[in-house]
Structure formats: structure tokens, C-alpha cells
Amino acid sequence: MRRLKIVITASEMAPFAKTGGLADVVGALPKALAARGHEVIVVMPKYASVKADMALFHSPMGVWMGGAQEWCSVHMAMYEGIPVYFIEHNNYFGRKGLYNDENMNEYGDNPKRFSFLSRAAIQLCQDLGYSPDIFHCNDWQTAMIPAYLKTWNFEGTSVENSASVLTIHNMAYQGMYDPSNMGYMGINGRYFTFDKFEHNGRVNMLKGGIYFADAVNTVSPTYAREVVSGMGYGMDGQLLAKGERFFGILNGADYSIWNPETDSKIPANYSSDDMRGKWICKGRLQEAMGLENDYTAPVFGVVGRFTSQKGYNLVAEAAERIICSTSAQIAIVGNGDNDLEGHFSWLAAKYPGRLGCYIGFNDKLAHLVEAGSDFFLMPSLFEPCGLNQIYSLKYGTLPIVRNTGGLSDTVDNFDERTMSGNGFKFDDFTPDALAGTMFWALRIYRQRPDAMEVLRRNAMKSDFSWDRSAAAYEAMYMKALNR
Ligand code: ADP
Questions:
Q1: 21 lines ligand 1 (CB under 6 A)
Q2: Which pLDDT does position 425 carry in this prediction?
Q3: CB of 387 closer than 6 A to ligand 1?
Q4: CA distances from residue 99 to 102, 129, 233, 276, 285 in whole angstroms, order as listed
């Protein structure tokens, strides 16, 4: 395998800016690719919230947008051996939120902000005389790069032969805007057709990206099948048209960050051979979430964005049934949808000591929930890959998941007869199905300590390290280069 030059572009990268799993992937994949011998750099925005030990690298940088040059600066920081370039444009990125204001309203100029980011990533390579083999773009925010590479004239510049791949982390977010943005974005009107950018009269950045990318993937094999069979949010045909250039590649987990044996964010470390640390974590979690300090009480953990995708409305209903008829506790960390935030806060007030909730984004607490809970709930309506269930496996916190997308690919349902499996799965998207599965898990917890032990060991042995996924990305890059 030859050494490839890969530019990964994204709107999030852990630990610099994160709203969800995209950031974790962009934080981990470059390291895994570099470990396999490739040259990898990352380009992302310099949001006001980014904290990094960075140095001014290139300024001013002129970027052609809407027929005029717009100016920005580029800063650079090293992250675990990977050069990360931050695009500084205060008018666009000098805000606290990544995509939304504090009331969760989307910024009106997002199409401009992220097409600028995309164009700036290309410009940086041109200015450096750097010739990437691959631009690896992520989601609609950088999906303009494949389109720019194919529709603008870069002949004679360093990027003239670069190929592009587009990874879609969630089909529900496509970047659809008023066509009046096309002038600034640099989309020629002749590409505003149904097979390229046009979608229900709007300009759809993801759709154009899918069309122009040399290869496209989503983040699990099952989700890749689902999105071409009715769950593609209107992109099913667009993806099918990619044929063998469309892949499903399961995300990995960064076990240098998510590993109970080494995690510095939890109060005690532990392993499958010595679980004492987990019980310390459980006590701390109960304390932090205002739950009764009872180590015999089973704890269900939840961490995630409160959106309709995640199925937390099922949790809200199932939680009351569980609390009213068992001694179980529930610890919830998340934010987003106002109704859900209000409802979980109300449940916490109604069942003090039994249901604890923290509304907000708190990375340390997320680690504590993974470590201190007995079970982890992900009843998603759909789930492209899902990382939390993969983390919870490693922490010996048994995932209870709906059988969809990446949850299907990573959790094996417990079989009481053969004692195989690493978690619990259900099919129906109903509170009954979730509650029924929680009751099943509680019965195992109370009556079958031997089975709990086997399940925990199986879970902690499950291996989703990035190297395997990085090898699959390599294969996709080769497909993209083979144009
Ligand atoms: P998605 O990308 O759909 O949000 P994933 O399960 O793939 O879902 O990834 C979610 C990531 O974001 C995990 O690392 C999770 O711990 C983190 N996360 C989500 N919500 C919060 C929160 N409120 N506080 C801390 N971390 C969070």
C-alpha cells in the first residue's frame, strides 16, 4: 500500500470542538491512518470556543467566494502527531456555537460559513503547494469540496489531481438552503438540477457532495443498507447511483480516551479482572446525579443529544414504569430539545433519588455515566453508527439498544441458553419494547449474577479499535483514486 497524502476536513474534531460523534471520529481516524503510514492533516474552523496551543501559520489567505476574494488566517496546532489547521474568519467562526445560537436556532449564514470553510481548505493546499491524494470530507459542512474540485478550474495548481471522498455521519442533516446562496457558494446554475444540488427547490449541499465525490460512505454496514431502502431522508436514489462507490464502514472507538483501565476522567480505574473501581465510579455517579447511595440498585445510564432520532421519548415513558415497580435508578446527561429537557427535569423532581438528570454538555460526566452505570440505554429510531454503546461495552456497562443501524452491528443480543451476547436488543420503537427489555435486564441483574458476569466480560472483550476501520477507509481511498 503506498503512502497517501490525506486532508481530512470537518466542522468538528475532538478535543477542539464537539457536538457529537463526528468529532470523536475526526479526532481518532487521522491517528489510525498515520499509524498505518499515511500523511494526514486536518482542516477545521477556529470557533471562539476552540482552545488549543496554536501558532499563526499563514496570513492573510485569500479565498475566492461569490466572485470576490475574502480574507482569513490559518493557525496550526499539533494534536498527537497530526497537524491541525484552524481557519480563522471571525465573522463566520468567531462565535461560541458551532451551528446554532444559544436558543438552538440555526445560524442563517451556515451555507456561507461552511462553503467558505470548504473552499478555504482547498486554498490552503494551493497556497502551500501541497498535493493531497485525497480530500476526506465529512457531512454537509464540507461536502462542497468534491463539487469545487470537479466544477472549478484548478488546472495547473497543486490540487488538480486530488480525489475526494465524503463520509456521511447522519443522513438527517443535509444542509438545505435557499438557492439565492448559490452565487456566494460558487455553484454554477447549471448544476442546480435534481441529480446534483436541487432538492425540493432548495440547494442541498450533501446531495451535491454525494454526486461529485469519487467515493461516499456512511458509518456502519447496516445503516448503509438502510439509507438506500427508505431511510435515506430522500437521498436513497442519490446513494444507489454511486453503485460500488458507496460503502458502509463501521466507526472505531478511540481506546486511548475511552478505556476504563486508563481513563483519567473517572474516579477509579478498573478492568474485567478487577471490577472494584467500577463500584467506586457507581457511588460517585449516584452522588453526582443526586441518586440514592445504594450500590445494590441497578443504574441505567443515558448520554446524548436530545433529538427525536435518539428515542428519548421512549425513555421518558419507560422510566416511570421502571421506577414505580423496581428499585432501579436512571442517570441522564444531555441537552437539545426543549420539551425533553423540561420533561426529564420534571421527572427528576418527581422521583428524587431515583432519576437524576444533568441538562448540558459535560464530557467528564459522560465518562462517569459510562463507567458508573450498569446498563446504557440507546433506543434510537435510527442510528448511523453510535459511539456511546461501543464505549459502554468497553466499560462493562451493558447496552440496551434498538436493533437499527450501527447498534445492530455492534451489540449482540444476550442468549440465555448459550450465554452468548454482549447486551440487550429490541425491535419495536415503542415504550413497551424498551420497558420490557429493561425489565429483562433487571431480572438478569437480580437473579443471574453468573450471567451478568459473563455478559460484562463479553462486553469488555468486544473490540472496535480504529485500525480495522482505517484499513477499510484505505480501501475506499484506493477506489476513489481509481477514477
Ligand atoms: P451522535 O453523533 O448522533 O451525537 P454518537 O453516539 O455517535 O451520537 O456520539 C455521541 C458523542 O457525543 C459521544 O462521545 C457522547 O459521549 C457525546 N455526547 C453527546 N451528548 C453529550 C453531553 N450532553 N455531554 C457530554 N458528551 C455528550
A1: yes
A2: 98
A3: yes
A4: 10, 31, 20, 41, 31
Q: Evaluate whether 305 touches 311 at the Cβ level (below 8 Å).
A: no
> Residue 121: what residue type?
A
pTM of the entire predicted model:
0.95
Phi and psi at residue 362, in whole multiples of 5°?
-145, 100
Task: Report yes or no: 472 and 249 within 8 Å, Cβ to Cβ.
Answer: yes
CB of 383 shorter than 6 A to ligand 1: no
Contacts of 282 (CB under 8 A, 6+ apart): 295, 299, 372, 373, 374
- Give pLDDT, residue 104: 84
Distance 386 CA to ligand 1 centre (A): 8
Long-range contacts of 427-432 (CB under 8 A, 24+ apart): 427/402, 427/403, 429/311, 429/314, 429/379, 429/381, 429/402, 430/314, 431/314, 431/317, 431/318, 431/321
The average pLDDT across 363-375 equals: 98
Q: Looking at the predicted structure, is the pLDDT value of residue 314 above 90?
A: yes
Helix pair angle (431-447, 449-461), 10° resolution = 110
Residues 107-164: pLDDT tens digits? Answer: 999 999 999 999 999 999 999 999 999 999 999 999 999 999 999 999 999 999 999 9
pLDDT for 96: 87
CB distance 154 to ligand 1 below 6 Å: no
- Sequential DSSP letters for 382-445: --SS-SHHHHHHHTT-EEEEESSHHHHHH-PBPBTTTTB-SBEEE-S-SHHHHHHHHHHHHHHH
Give the pLDDT score at 441. 98
Mind listing the pLDDT tens digit for each residue in 23-52? 999 999 999 999 999 999 999 999 999 999
DSSP code per residue over 281-346: HHHHHHHHTTB---TTS-EEEEEEEESGGGTHHHHHHHHHHHHHHSS-EEEEEEEE-HHHHHHHHH
Nearest-angstrom CA–CA distance, 414 and 387: 20
Q: How far apart are CA 247 and CA 469, in angstroms?
A: 12
Write down the pLDDT at residue 103.
86
In a 3-state reduction of DSSP, which class is residue 255? coil
Q: Mean pLDDT over all residues of the chain?
A: 97
Q: How far apart, in whole angstroms, are the C-alpha atoms of residue 361 and residue 348? A: 18
235-265 pLDDT, tens digit per residue, is: 999 999 999 999 999 999 999 999 999 999 9
* Residue nearest atom 12 in ligand 1 by C-alpha distance: 20
Q: How many CB atoms lie within 10 A of CB 40?
A: 23
CB-CB contact of 42 with 124 (8 Å): no
